[in-house]
Amino acid sequence: MNSPIIELKNITKEFSGVKALKGVSLTVYPGSVHALVGENGAGKSTLMKILTGAYSKTSGEILYKGETIENIDPKTSKKIGIHCIYQELNVANYLTVAENVFLGSQPVKKTGLIDWKQMNEKAMEIFASLQINLNPKQIAKDISIAQKQMIEIARAISQEAKILIMDEPTSSLSERETEILLSLVTELKNKGVSILYVSHRMDEIFRICDTVTVLRDGTHIKTLPMSEVKNVDTLVELMVNRKMDDYFNKIKVPIGEPILKVQNLSKTGFLKDINLELRRGEILGIAGLVGSGRTEIAQALFGLLKKDTGEILINNKLAKINNPSDAIKLGIGFVTENRKETGLVLKQTVRDNISLPNLRKFTKRLIVNKKAEKKVSEEYKQILNIKANTIEQKVSTLSGGNQQKAIIARWMIQEPRILILDEPCRGVDVGAKAEIFAQISKLAEQGVGIIMISSELSEIVGMSDRALVMREGSIAGELGKDMITSDNILKLAFGGAIGA
């Protein structure tokens, strides 16, 4: 590595007098993978948006190949080859896969019309290089979150990025897809592409990154070669400024009587003969590969996916759940896997989003008691340590982890009997994860039955009292507490048998 490709010197960014970044410096070299880590709210997203030109810096200096860039805007950023794959997916659902890959840069014929044949062929070439099985003519709304993530990566490759910013790129990917992505990162690095890698998955950082920069509360804490970082604990302590003891904060609670029974639940193309039981105070983990039917179980229980056959019983009484409103009335809460599309009202405030399904609690004679609404929202902001200047702040301005906490606060106010959590810690830093897991444990202690779906095997192992493993729409196996291990989960997920 010779001269830096990009340098940020003493970057400060203020929002209405509040400093999101305080004199942050960052140096990235050609053909290197540079990790950027820190808790949610540490300033990582703000720094990335300054690099891409989405935000303008308040003060500081940006140099590209040694030359100062006075005002970096999205056009300038793209011109010098900076491309960002954001944690919140940027895919147009009603365009084709190929259109999404070449969004804004579609090949055209001499007539000025889009060359659909060439665009589809180019998309297929990129997919082949990534080992992705996707039809370029398919409409994007019909594919999974993992596949949408791969579209974003393909788009960056099509634009020949020189500096590729990856914000939690594997958060929605299966084990196999993650392996493909990490191999691709190494391949891009060998071709001279500089990668700024933002991830809360420590194993990935230690595996593929050359250098790490730690941010905390908008301040640059340290930049180190990965060879000088002793272990995960060392890095985490720099991020959170405290020792991490019990990461999962799992409280041992007595398991009560069954609260939910699912019998012979099926949905053509998604679920086959699902039978499960959930008890009071129990955390039931659901694992499996992406597309195995994990999310579809949650959607069926919450009335988002209409079942073909089967019964759902709550407290041994047949439950008719035709829509989410029916589910909420029966005491079911649901934290979805995609907070941007199905969890939040991004243009509304933190208060609005926390109180959204709870307005009846604050309403008398059709008038909302704003004082009571604000009081409860403020209480849960404190309980969950939601980092926001005020509850009247737009929820879209919060970091991903703090947005997730706002959604969890919403259901805690609801006091559900059953809480379904689909990827509750997706894109959430280690400090925030510990806080969320602590709240999940407290809910279980209060007798709430919890279904927790996660792609992170460590989360299933660390939090579950019992686990189900899904495969191709069916339950491949059930694991008791002593049998929940990463090896056992993977064996069942890939069609093997325990003890084989």
Description of the structure:
The chain has helices at residues 44-52, 74-79, 97-101, 116-130, 145-158, 175-190, 202-208, 232-240, 294-301, 324-329, 339-343, 350-355, 370-383, 400-414, 430-445, 457-463, 486-493; strands spanning 6-15, 18-28, 33-37, 59-64, 67-68, 82-85, 163-167, 194-198, 211-216, 219-225, 258-267, 271-279, 283-288, 309-314, 317-318, 332-335, 363-364, 367-368, 418-422, 449-453, 466-471, 474-480. By secondary structure, it is of the alpha/beta class. A six-stranded mixed beta sheet has the order 6-7-8-3-9-10, sandwiched between helices. It has a six-stranded mixed beta sheet with strand order 16-19-20-13-21-22, with helices on both faces. Strands 2-1-4-5 form a four-stranded antiparallel beta sheet, with helices on one face. A hairpin with a 2-residue loop joins strand 21 (466-471) and strand 22 (474-480). The longest helix has 16 residues, at 175-190. 46% of the residues are buried. The model has no long low-confidence stretch (mean pLDDT 88).
Low-confidence stretches: none
Widest β-sheet, arrangement of strands: 6-7-8-3-9-10
Summed over residues and divided by their number, the pLDDT gives a mean of: 88
Count of beta strands: 22
Helical percent range?
25-40%
Secondary structure category: alpha/beta
Give the distance, in angstroms, between the N- and C-terminal Cα atoms.
Answer: 48 Å
Please write out the topology.
Blueprint: E1 6-15, E2 18-28, E3 33-37, H1 44-52, E4 59-64, E5 67-68, H2 74-79, E6 82-85, H3 97-101, H4 116-130, H5 145-158, E7 163-167, H6 175-190, E8 194-198, H7 202-208, E9 211-216, E10 219-225, H8 232-240, E11 258-267, E12 271-279, E13 283-288, H9 294-301, E14 309-314, E15 317-318, H10 324-329, E16 332-335, H11 339-343, H12 350-355, E17 363-364, E18 367-368, H13 370-383, H14 400-414, E19 418-422, H15 430-445, E20 449-453, H16 457-463, E21 466-471, E22 474-480, H17 486-493
Parallel strand pairs: 3-8, 3-9, 6-7, 7-8, 13-20, 13-21, 16-19, 19-20
Antiparallel strand pairs: 1-2, 1-4, 4-5, 9-10, 11-12, 11-14, 14-15, 17-18, 21-22
Helix pairs in contact: 13-14, 14-15
